[in-house]
Write a structure and sequence with these properties.
This protein is mainly alpha-helical. The chain is built from 36 helices and four strands. Among the domains are: about 100 residues; about 110 residues, no CATH class.
Length: about 675
């Protein structure tokens, strides 16, 4: 199996962490009789030899040995080896050298594709399941591939393998349909047959998901009702075969974990595939989610809760009905379903409003859910109360007041106050008292003070000026130093305006520190004297190594308006910056200062809007501040409001905060167009 492995000069080959001299040990570990050793070796392969999907010269050298290991029937863990080979063959590369290695890996797998033909009929169902995708991807004989898949469909009895075969048909159709091959049409016809009776609900769901991805025109007109019924039928079958929790011998660790957080990964995959294939058919996806969320089976409902998060992060429409149904899960007996619902609702901010009644009922009758103790014992605001407050529901205010009056107060409580607006004003005295007790130094100062400062700033609580000033004067010693507490304190004083006049001298003292821009903003807000802060802001524009501060300075200069004309040369230079957000902020500032869009301003803003979605809220805010003068960009705002997709939907790594950021953008666009 490993013949010739010691003849490879592994030390001269590379993986993600340098020399590949440890790779022979990993390969031998994959063949170990010890499951723990096999798992460690597999982790090592993915962690170093195939790190983040990349292919190295050592990865290529491993392919013959992995193929040899995959066909040895006496070995355990062969399914995982085949999955690793499929992943290696699916790598795209990330540069000329990487592209070449990835292409050579695919060529090696195509040359060894007879291995996957053999494994498609292996005695191990896991191996058969993993081999299907490899067969479709690497056997360069389409007619033979289709014949093999068709044959396996007639003899296969393991449902997991049947589902993999159906997924393989869909992959085959997608790979060959663009070339107009008749075999792709044949694969689609076979999928259409599999999507109907007398086939079972699992295979039918799988076939419908594949049809949606490769031949949506072949889907039935009553797709959603059909899928919902199939889901219920499948759940009913699963319930009949599910072992009762109190069966004899059911007290293994695996069984205890399953009872704590049961899962249906197969069902989840079936429905995720369909949702992904439906893509922009949002009305159908919402109807499907509602069907899933009303299933009698809590596992189906839990899967739907998690899937809804993906829909909400990408699309702007159709959230109300599924959100209300997610709220209904808060009353479920199953703790894992309740926790899933809370996790999704916390992401939604204002969009969680349809679930607010359920959230309020939960935290009103279960006070223990108002505070959550983390793994390190640090208290944080409980998810249900946080979701209710983030939704802007005033019913959260008395509940937060009870938490503030209790013996344990989470430091992050202040972070939800801005979402409640003026409704949270009754909390100001308690927040103010807590701020007055924050120590000027010592551990936890920042965690305690910053959320309180943000909350009091949002409430405009001018009575807290003395306590804020105390923290400001407690800034760290040293030239130019300014910590997060000092910056948050300066921000709060700026929010209080002229009521914070007693702190002017303290704010002046910050103009030569890292908090210069924040202090300048506060001074201008407190005194209204633009000439005092203008030199500081012009100086900050020239600080090429301080991108965040430079952008903040440009933004404040725009707010100063015509008084900031001396800064125009520096701002005009910034419109040619290599940073898109910096270009946008500078162009906006030039426009606000001059009162008209100069020659370069509109092209800069239009290109930033189109090419860098993260700049859109800044640009929309500028258009709003300009009032009627911002009309030349109103078309961009109108187009944004018409778009059904969230503005960061195509960004890599977009996540929960993007929902809130997108809703802020939409509100800003509406407000700008209403001016």
């Amino acid at each position: 199996m490993f013949r010739g492995i010691d003849e490879v000069d592994w030390a001269s080959l590379r993986h993600a962490y340098g020399s590949a001299e440890d790779v022979p040990g990993l390969l031998r570990g994959l063949a170990s009789a010890d499951p723990a050793e096999r798992e460690t070796a597999l982790d090592g392969m993915y962690g170093a030899v195939h790190h983040r999907g990349d292919v190295y010269d050592s990865t290529l050298a491993c392919v013959p040995f992995l193929l040899a290991l995959a066909v040895r029937e006496e070995e355990r863990g062969r399914a995982e080896v085949v999955e690793l080979l499929v992943s290696i063959g699916g790598a795209d590369g990330s540069g000329d050298a990487a592209d070449d290695l990835a292409a050579r890996a695919r060529a090696a797998l195509r040359a060894g594709a007879e291995v996957f033909v053999r494994l498609a009929g292996d005695a191990d169902a896991g191996v058969r399941r993993a081999a299907v995708e490899a067969l479709v991807r690497f056997l360069d004989q389409p007619a033979r591939v289709l014949a093999l898949v068709r044959e396996r469909l007639t003899v296969e009895r393991d449902e997991g393998v049947l589902l993999a075969l159906i997924e393989g048909l869909g992959l085959f159709a997608r790979r060959h349909r663009s070339a107009g091959e008749a075999r792709a049409t044949e694969a689609v016809r076979l999928l259409a047959t599999l999507s109907g009776p007398p086939h079972g609900p699992g295979p039918r769901l799988a076939a419908l998901g594949q049809l949606a991805g490769c031949a949506p025109e072949s889907l039935p007109a009553d797709l959603i009702p059909t899928v919902v019924q199939l889901l219920r039928d499948r759940s009913g079958q699963r319930a009949c075969t599910r072992h009762p929790p109190d069966r004899p011998g059911a007290d293994t660790l695996a069984d205890r974990l399953r009872r704590l957080r049961p899962s249906d990964e197969e069902g989840s995959q079936l429905l995720r595939t369909l949702h992904r294939a439906l893509g922009g058919r949002v009305a159908d996806r919402v109807a499907l989610l509602c069907g899933q969320l009303t299933s009698p089976d809590p596992l189906d409902r839990c899967n739907a809760v998690w899937m809804s998060a993906g829909l909400f992060r990408e699309w702007r429409t159709g959230t109300e009905a599924p959100v209300a149904l997610i709220g209904a899960q808060l009353g479920a007996e199953e703790s894992w379903l309740h926790d899933a619902a809370v996790a999704v609702l916390v992401e939604l901010f204002d969009l969680a409003a349809p679930a607010a009644d359920h959230l309020h009922a939960l935290v009103a009758c279960r006070p223990e859910l108002r505070i959550r103790h983390g793994e390190r014992g640090t208290p944080t605001l409980g998810g249900p109360l946080k979701a209710l407050a983030r939704a802007g529901d005033a019913r959260a205010v008395p509940l937060l007041a009870e938490v503030l009056a209790g013996p344990v107060v989470p430091d992050d409580l202040g972070l939800v106050i801005p979402h409640l607006g003026r409704a949270a004003a009754p909390l100001a005295p308690a927040l103010r008292r807590r701020l007055a007790r924050v120590p000027l130094d010592g551990p936890g100062r920042q965690e305690r003070a910053v959320p309180l400062l943000l909350a009091l700033a949002a409430l405009g609580d001018t009575e807290s000026v003395p306590s804020v000033g105390r923290l400001l004067r407690g800034m760290p010693d040293g030239p130019g130093l300014c910590d997060a507490v000092t910056e948050a304190a300066a921000h709060a004083l700026g929010a209080f305006g002229s009521a914070a006049h007693e702190t002017v001298r303290d704010l002046h003292g910050l103009l030569d520190t890292d908090c210069a821009v924040t202090a300048a903003r506060a001074l201008w807000s407190v005194t209204g004297a633009a000439d005092t802060v203008l030199p500081v802001l012009v100086r900050e524009l020239a600080e090429t190594e301080r991108g965040r501060r430079r952008r903040a300075a440009a933004g404040l200069l725009g707010r100063l308006g015509p008084a900031a004309r001396p800064a125009l040369p520096g701002l005009r230079r910034m419109t040619g910056s290599g940073d898109a957000l910096e270009r946008a902020v500078a162009a906006c500032a030039v426009w606000r200062i001059t009162g008209e869009p100069e020659k370069q301003v509109l092209p800069v803003l239009r290109s930033a809007w189109a090419e860098h979605p993260h700049t859109r809220t800044t640009i929309a805010g500028c258009v709003k501040a300009l009032g009627p003068t911002g009309a030349p960009l109103h078309d961009l705002l109108r187009a944004e409001l018409r778009s059904p997709r969230r503005h960061r939907a195509d960004a890599e790594g977009h996540g929960p905060q993007d929902i809130h950021a997108d809703e802020v953008l939409l509100r800003t666009c509406r407000a700008a167009l209403a001016e």
